[in-house]
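Hi R.,

As promised on Friday, here is the backbone we talked about, encoded as structure tokens. Could you run it through your design pipeline when you get a chance and send me back a sequence?
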């Protein structure tokens, strides 16, 4: 049998599997009635009440399972890229009804992906497969994903690590999240989006840890210079959102680095932002950064803020319309209140502007 025909058999199994699992999971109406009746009767000694025997598989369902198992056997005989892809697809067919089986297949699919050569032609395929596999595995077994991160391609490792940090933040599991951020930053750059989520989830009593993460982000941003201006989830959003709750010296360092890199940027930049509050357009990264940073700078160093405004009349007029800068256009970036001890806001991390009444349009000029 050729590889193509083998793959076709695999696909056939995947088409049958959803029907198989949907029907297998469904509880027949008459069985629900029996279970309800059993609940109403007093339990008889030595007899298990409410125990429902699963309905036997139909012939079609049995055939479907056989095809799926056959597809798996054939997939395991394929070469690395196709074996990895086929096992991933079969695992997704198992997900609704048998997560343990799906997890095993996903682990095997990732192992198969490691056998894909690291040449230019196949590198993108390898990365896409690994990311798809680990994303599918993450809701089932986070520990399995973390165990495999070191074997994943660097880009995949960073993407999945960011997702895991946000999961830890949601669960208030701060120690492993900080450890993962430290590991990521040592290898590459600080993960600003998930780092912001983690800082926002920390309670006021963890102000020391919050400040350490903010300082780490500032240092990383400084070391990885020439950043293109990011619209959402970047370092500038972190500064806008958390700068007021940080020590003034630390916040000023972050503002200085943001403005410095924006001023040095030669990348073409044009953006129009609109919300219920109005519309603002920017023709350079520096103008955009000034608009974002000046409300915070005014709190920390009013004389310097006034000086910068005099040099940039265009930004001055925009700030007259939007006194809080980015926070006026995007309320999700409103600074938290760690200083005042208002824990009701400390868990709020910056949210994407989509859905917040803000429309972004970016174009080269």
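Update: got your reply. Pasting your designed sequence below so it's all in one thread:
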């Amino acid at each position: 049998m050729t590889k193509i025909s083998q793959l076709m058999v695999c696909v056939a199994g995947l088409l049958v599997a959803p029907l198989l699992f949907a029907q297998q999971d469904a509880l027949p109406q008459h069985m629900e009635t029996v279970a309800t009746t059993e609940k109403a009767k007093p339990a008889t000694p030595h007899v298990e009440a409410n125990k429902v025997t699963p309905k036997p598989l139909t012939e079609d369902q049995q055939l479907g399972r056989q095809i799926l198992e056959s597809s798996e056997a054939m997939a395991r005989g394929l070469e690395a890229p196709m074996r990895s892809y086929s096992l991933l697809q079969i695992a997704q067919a198992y997900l609704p009804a048998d997560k343990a089986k799906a997890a095993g297949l996903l682990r095997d699919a990732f192992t198969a992906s490691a056998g894909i050569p690291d040449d230019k032609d196949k590198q993108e395929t390898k990365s896409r497969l690994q990311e798809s596999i680990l994303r599918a595995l993450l809701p089932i077994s986070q520990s399995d994903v973390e165990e495999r991160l070191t074997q994943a391609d660097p880009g995949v490792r960073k993407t999945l690590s960011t997702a895991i940090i946000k999961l830890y933040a949601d669960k208030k599991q701060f120690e492993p999240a900080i450890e993962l951020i430290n590991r990521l930053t040592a290898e590459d750059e600080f993960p600003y989006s998930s780092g912001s989520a983690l800082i926002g989830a920390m309670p006021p009593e963890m102000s020391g840890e919050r400040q350490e993460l903010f300082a780490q982000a500032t240092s990383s941003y400084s070391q990885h210079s020439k950043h293109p201006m990011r619209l959402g989830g970047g370092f500038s959003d972190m500064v806008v959102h958390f700068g007021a709750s940080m020590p003034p010296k630390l916040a000023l360092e972050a503002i200085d680095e943001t403005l410095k890199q924006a001023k040095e940027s030669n990348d073409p930049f044009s953006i129009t932002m609109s919300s219920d509050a109005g519309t603002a357009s920017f023709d350079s990264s520096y103008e955009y950064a000034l608009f974002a940073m000046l409300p915070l700078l005014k709190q920390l160093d009013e004389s310097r803020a006034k000086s910068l405004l005099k040099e940039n009349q265009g930004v001055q007029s925009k700030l007259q319309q939007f006194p809080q800068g980015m926070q006026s256009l995007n309320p999700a970036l409103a600074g938290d209140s760690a200083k005042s001890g208002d824990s009701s806001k400390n868990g709020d991390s910056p949210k994407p502007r989509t859905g917040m009444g803000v429309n972004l349009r970016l174009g080269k000029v």
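One thing I noticed while checking it: The beta strands are 271-275, 278-282, 359-362.

Thanks again,
M.
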